[in-house]
Design brief:
The protein has 437 residues and is mainly beta. The protein has seven helices and 26 strands. The chain is globular and about 75 Å long.
Length: 437
Amino acid sequence: MKMKSKILSIIASAAMLVSVASCDNYEPKIVGGGEGKLDTSSLSVEVSNAEKIVNEGSATKKGLSRAVTDLSDYLVIVTDAQGNEVKRWTYATMPELPTFPAGTYNINVLSREEPTSAEWDAPFFKGSTSFTIVADEVTDNVKVVCKLANIRVTVNFTDELVAASAGDIKVTVRSEGEQNLTFTPSETRSGYFAAVDGLETLSVAFQGTVQNTEEKFTKVLTEVAGGQHRIITYGLKSNPNEPPAATGGIALGEEGINVSTDVEEEDLTANVPYEEDVLPDNDRPGQEGDDPNQGGGDDPQPGDDAITFSTSMPHGLDHVYDVNDFVANGYTADLTMSVPNGAKSVVVKIDSDNLDVTDVGLVNEFDLATVSGDLATSISGLGFPIGDQVVNQTTLKFDITQFVGLLANFQGKSNFIITVTDNKGNVATTTLQFNVK
């Protein structure tokens, strides 16, 4: 019973990805044993903040905007439970009904091959979710949300600073792994740094002549992670005898310098409103002419009524947290869901390399809005909202800090997936990701 309670606690703190309903009622019959099929025609891919990221950061907006919203060249990679690649296509060339042996798989969608170096105006999006193949059945309605996975850096110089300089100022941003880009006042593009394993800091080196004085100093951005946008602004310091204030992730500067430094951080893994005409997302070949009133086409576009997620976890919701480091640093594993139209359902699922809840007679997914019986009693006792505490609520909160430590008993990855559906049919998903090495 102790183990059952422990595993139930983990499940209740998890997150789940709910499928988006297919507009196609066709269900082909499968003959044979031990194999099933994936209906890729019902695969839904959403790219969060694509228009905002590209259009705000690019000097060639039109061309890049189309490249991001067109899914044709996105890579679709299927891996088995051990992480081995079993299928690979582009989004445009996916077969409609590929066959797989029965089992659990991950489907990974990437905007291109994963970058390993810094590049100009080169956002990289990726997302993944799990699906299960059942013998002699068709699996459909799989949804993947792709988010920015590299680190965006923008460097600005105020007009006053440029006017006071000798025309030689520049800033070089470097990361671990010798990635580097050099920014000047004439450079309007954003730089994108690969979020490689072990990357935790970026160094930012300023150099140039300001007010007839050579300035040369280096600052450090800490706790960097994929999906972040670090905006660094250099200005002319009004009193060169006072050190600049430290803001964002940049440390204090040296006394006597003429340049002030300001840093902002923007989380681009969460949906951020962007007021511009958005290209239609029905770019899958053969779907360009879909009429949303005749079935098919795009998912509902919620606009200002979007379901959003936030957390105080240091690297956001697109980061895989090492359980031992997470506990040692005293981080809080919290999730806040904003549902302007009111919640209809909150479905929770766990996808783990080694945790099998069926071994102790428990289900591995449930809807907090409709859960009942002993499971509802246990979940409520753990402090999770159920029933009327979920239905029609506009703000929902989880705090699963006390349960994260229990994951140390299960080596490998544990993905907690939560999907919220609101009263207008809009669906949003996020994942809390943990790993025990």
